[in-house]
Amino acid sequence: MPTSDTITLSQADYVRLLVHGTTAFELLRTALELELFERLEKTAIGLTVDEVATALDVQPQAARVLLLGLSSLGLVEVHEGRHVNTPMVRRKLLRDSHRFLGPLVDIQARVINPAMGDLADAVRENRNVGLRHFDSPGDTLYQRLTAYPELQQVFYANMGDASAKALEQLLGLYDFSGLRHVVDLGGGDGTNAVAIAKRYPDLRVTVFDQPTVTTLAAERVDDPDVASRVAFQPADLLTDPLPTDADAICYLHIFEIWSLERNTELLRRCWEALPEGGVCLVYSFVSRDDGTGPMSAGLVSPYFLTLASGEGMTYSARDMAQAVRDAGFRQVEEHRDLGFSHALVVGRK
User: Fold this and answer.
1) pLDDT tens digits, 47-59
2) HSE of 226 in the Cβ direction (CA atoms, 13 Å)?
């Protein structure tokens, strides 16, 4: 079983994962739902099939099927008939792990996967055909989720979790100490705004997002000092005027949602709203400049086409920098090859 960050598969097994990927995902989702990994972790010697069946309150045959699937995927090891977690599970699939991927599995299962069967039609028609699974008004997933409060919670729980992990990297890279007021454009559940405000006690942050999201975000701020410096402005990102009293705008995890043309248009509005010397921070997942990967970019991009907006994808850092220049920013800095497959482009007016 793999003990490093590299897993080697035969070509035949790689093809099997491509064909049976839905089954592999459901094996993982089921193990998380039944809290199997936590149950295995409670004992130093692991559990037999019968002990797993008892712990999960299922029949031994069902437990055997589940454990066979998980061991074939390298998630569970078997030592003398007893099942234990692999190191990868301990790093990323236990609920008390800093890298826990549960929120990502939830959004994939409940929001994204139901629509991905429409990818072929989305490619043919160049639009987010998968929106048909959400019967409510709006041209994007973000608009339609407002009619599904529970799914909206699932969606922003994942976005907040992913943002928290990537934001720590951004805060270690960019110094906000010279700024007075930052606008977090499309700031979601406020994760970014709260983290920035906590790190910089003299800084004001405004979350600029749709009304149902800002209401959700405001409920999460329980620190009185932070609450006094974090504001929530309900607005339509595409049409409403941006605040003009900020000296920085955070354009975090927005670039991948839209076409290059729309991104340039939105960044131009950021340029117009900022004072001379103001900065715009564009921080996003990225692909390679030559369009060959990485796998994270290749597997996430169909979501933006099929469901989210019908026009986005995971772009390269070169695409981001060019859009910032085309929007009018005169000084453009690129920070490439960051962790979590991210890049930061800083545009100064």
Assistant:
1) 999 999 999 999 9
2) 19
Per-residue confidence band for 218, with pLDDT thresholds at 50, 70 and 90: low
Amino acid at site 160: G
Where do we find the tokens 């897993």? 7
Report the mean per-residue pLDDT for the chain.
93
pLDDT, tens digit (0-9, with 9 covering 90-100), for 286-310: 999 999 999 999 999 999 999 999 9
Average pLDDT over residues 223-243: 90
- End-to-end CA distance of the chain: give it in Å, rounded: 52
Q: Are strands 342-348 and 331-338 parallel, antiparallel or unpaired?
A: antiparallel
165 pLDDT more than 80: no
pLDDT band at 1 (very low <50, low <70, confident <90, very high): very low
The reported pLDDT for the residue numbered 319 is 98
CA separation, residue 320 to residues 35, 114, 170 (Å) = 40, 30, 16
**CA dist 17 → 73, 79, 165, 303 (Å):** 9, 25, 28, 19
Q: What distances in angstroms separate CA 343 from CA 40, 47, 253, 258, 303, one per listed residue?
A: 38, 43, 11, 17, 20
Q: Which domains does the chain have, with CATH numbers?
A: 11-92 (1.10.10.10), 102-348 (3.40.50.150)
Q: Quick check: helix, strand or coil at residue 287?
A: strand
Asked whether the beta carbons of 36 and 53 are under 8 A apart, the reply is: no
What angle in degrees, to the nearest 10, is found between the helix axes of 49-56 and 60-72? 110
Residues in a beta bridge with 232 = 207
Give the count of beta carbons closer than 10 Å to the beta carbon of residue 288.
14
Calculate ∠ Cα 341-344-348, nearest 5°. Answer: 170
Rounded Cα distance between 181 and 319, Å, is 27
Give the residue among 171, 168, 250, 267 at the shortest CA–CA distance from 208. 250
